[in-house]
Every structure is written in C-alpha cells, then in structure tokens.
What we know:
The chain is an alpha/beta fold and 509 residues long. 48% of the residues lie in helices and 12% in strands. The protein folds into 3 domains: 198 residues, P-loop containing nucleotide triphosphate hydrolases (Rossmann fold, 3-Layer(aba) Sandwich); 163 residues, Rossmann fold (3-Layer(aba) Sandwich); 50 residues. The structure holds adenosine-5'-diphosphate and magnesium ion. Magnesium ion binds next to helix 4.
Amino acid sequence: xxxxxxxxxxxxxxxxxxxxxxxxxxxxxxxxxxxxxxxxxxxxxxxxxxxxxxxxxxxxxxxxxxxxxxxxxxxxxxxxxxxxxxxxxxxxxxxxxxxxxxxxxxxxxxxxxxxxxxxxxxxxxxxxxxxxxxxxxxxxxxxxxxxxxxxxxxxxxxxxxxxxxxxxxxxxxxxxxxxxxxxxxxxxxxxxxxxxxxxxxxxxxxxxxxxxxxxxxxxxxxxxxxxxxxxxxxxxxxxxxxxxxxxxxxxxxxxxxxxxxxxxxxxxxxxxxxxxxxxxxxxxxxxxxxxxxxxxxxxxxxxxxxxxxxxxxxxxxxxxxxxxxxxxxxxxxxxxxxxxxxxxxxxxxxxxxxxxxxxxxxxxxxxxxxxxxxxxxxxxxxxxxxxxxxxxxxxxxxxxxxxxxxxxxxxxxxxxxxxxxxxxxxxxxxxxxxxxxxxxxxxxxxxxxxxxxxxxxxxxxxxxxxxxxxxxxxxxxxxxxxxxxxxxxxxxxxxxxxxxxxxxxxxxx
Length: 509
Ligand code: ADP
Ligand code: MG
C-alpha cells in the first residue's frame, strides 16, 4: 500500500511539473510582439530587456489601444517601461510636450526621467524634469524644449497656477498614486488636472488601492481598464536568496561576520522597527562601518541627502525600515540583509527587490531564529521562490579568505621608491625576513576577524530542524509519518560539539 501511494504521488508530481513548464514556455513572449517601431525595439534591446514583465505584458496592449488604465503593482515590477514604452511608441515628436508623468518625489522624478530618456532618445525625444527647490527659469526653459515632462506635484502646480507654463499633453501618467496620497498631495493633483486638456489618455499606477485613490481614479480616468499584478510576479530572478539560522543573541555577530565574509559593495540592512535601526546604526558605526539609518519619519531633504551619500559611496550600508526603503532605486546594491525576517511576504519581496537591479546580480540574506523557520516556508510558498539554507562562516574561514586576498594584493602591488628607502633604513638593524614578518603582522592586524568562531546552526542542525518542522506539520494534518529523524529534545548543545570537526565540509556561501 505504502509503496504504491509513494509511487503514484511521484508520478503525479512529475506530470504536473512537466505541464507547468509547458505552459510557462508557451506563455513566454518577447517585446517584438508589441510591434513597436524598429528604433524603439533597438532601445529596448540596448537596455538589456529580454522579456516583458507581467505588468508590462498586460498594460502595454491596453495603452496602445488608447484606453485609460489603472495599474496596481508593487515597486520593482517594471511600471515605468509599462507606461513609457507604449507612450513613446505613440508620440509623434512634432508638437511640444506630448507626455506628462507626475511622481511623488524628486528622486523618483529623476529615476523615471532617466528611464524614459533611455528609451526616447533614440527617437529624438527630449525629457525635462520638474521639481521644487531649484531655479524656475532654467526649468521653464527646459520644459519649453521637451517632449516628455516628469514632475512632482508641488512645483508643477506652481508653474501651472502662475501661468508660467501651459501644458497640452496627449498622455498623462500618475505614478505611485498611493505614495502621493501619503505625502498629502491629493489637492495638488486635483488642481493640476484642472489645467490639463479633457481630451487625453490618462494612466494611473499605484502599489495599493486605498479608497481615496479609487475616488480620485473615478474623477480623472475615463472608463479605465484595470491591470493587477500579484505580489509574486517579479521583474527579475537575478537575486540569490539565502537564510542563516542563528539564536536571537547571535544576530549582531552573524551580521558582522557575513558582511566581513561577503564584502558587499553597497548593502541595505532591514529592521522591523525604527528603534532597531537606531541601535544597529550606532553599533555598526562603533565597529567602523560607514552606515546611515533611514526611517519613515525623516524629513524629505534629509532623506535625499542620505540617499545621495549612499549613491556616491560615502555611506556603504543603509540600515532601514520597510517604509523608509520604499521606492528606493540604487543600482549597485550587492546585498540585502534581513536582520529579522519580515512579517509578511509582500515586505520580503519588496525588500529583496532593492538588490539585483538594472541587470546586476544580487544576494538577499535573511537571519532567522529556529522558531522562524515556518515563516521561511510560508514566504517561499507565497512568493514562489526558494531560499537556500547556509551556515555562518567561522572566524577561521573568513580569516583564510582575507589572508589569501591579502597575498594576491601583495603580489600585484607595485613597489614605490619610498618603500625601498624605508626597508633600506630598517635593514641597518633588522634582517630582511624579520622585516617581512613585522610588516605582514601590521597589515594582518587590519584584517583581523573578530567575534566567536562558531555562530548559528550548522547544515546538519538546520536539516534536522526542517525535518522536525515537517513532522510537526504532518502530525497536525493527522499524518501517519513515523518519528524517524525527529530530535525529540532538540538538544543542540551535544550535536554542536560533535559537529565541530565536520563543519569544514559544509556548504559555504
Ligand atoms: P517600478 O516602477 O514598478 O518600481 P521600475 O520601472 O522602476 O519598477 O523597474 C525596476 C527595474 O527593473 C528598473 O531598473 C528597470 O530598468 C528594470 N526593468 C523593468 N522592466 C524590465 C524588463 N522587462 N526586463 C529587465 N529589466 C526590467
Ligand atoms: Mg516606478
């Protein structure tokens, strides 16, 4: 009986796998199918876009057909190209400003206009950006020469009200509508639309759909079509996702060890609360890292300054809450660290989407305590991805990696005349081998790995824990599974000592 059940389950699993892949393959499409102008297709290819994202697949045909549209999708799903490409395709290029995009912040205005410029320049379209805090005259001049204008609500309203500019766009986009609502721009938006022509195609994008946004949509959109992309459909799969099982008191040690080991160019550490952001910021600063905290109640100016410092590399690590990192688009973030696993899957998707942007590879690293393993399973299921378990490298392992990097560096370094002088002087009193030892000791002190040797669970312990969770789940479901593999006491202490010697063999990474 048992064997037959196992075999038939395997067969069903195999066929459903084949079927799923068949449909996946059949559904795959390219940008060619939208039949854009050759030049626009060229620009898409140059941008490295191969396959349209889900929101792009659904929105582009609707927009090309001339409908108003309301799109709901999370950050990082490719909304800019979803509206930008069809609009650019339909623009004639001969009559002033044809497209107006309204975004909540200056930062987003720059991002969106960069992306639109990337696609539009090949067709000779000019893009202007309009936001507060800069001189009017220069901005107005740029607007007068532009085909596409990307603007924040405050300054745009100013310019329209004072009649310094007149706009007659065929396409109007309201991007990140819910964020504009959060920032209190609702009145400005309504005002702006009074100055816009009735005869226009209007598109609205929002990550969430609060009531006020729905009401606004009724006011400014004309029989719109809706596009909703679920949270699991994402733009890119270039993000490797790993988790490490550690005890709560080991989180700080694990984080520092992993940063030491991974050596990220730029990274973001996510915390659940502002309090944690503050604590971790001062702790990491005291450990010599260039960090900055980013949380929800920062002023816009301060926030922008911090983000600029991050982009320029003056700050290497951002420590942020979910709210604060919303919409953050920095291209070269190599690692995202989840100091705590987020409560909901949506936040997880959003957090890890801060890395692996613009075609780069990224790594998302999550620290969990043994009792949070169930959250991992739930997120994997919701998001449809797999997180791989890994073991925090030992001090020794990080040290040897650093030492070998140091050796490489020494071999590659050019000898300077002043170094020769220095060694000559030392040679009066000390023999050359001792000098070498002394110099190496000085350098090595700099790369000394701190902290205890072993942090968190090893691979065997993680597997045992996973097995235990699976058993518990089975028991709830009235399964007849045996007790095999279950560690009834969860007595980690003993196995830890025993496993120490076998730790070398574990998966690193
Ligand atoms: P959203 O506005 O939904 O937050 P963006 O439009 O800013 O997302 O896109 C996020 C990132 O994904 C950008 O770096 C963008 O260039 C990239 N991107 C968008 N669409 C694609 C695609 N089809 N293929 C590859 N990368 C894409
Ligand atoms: Mg966007």
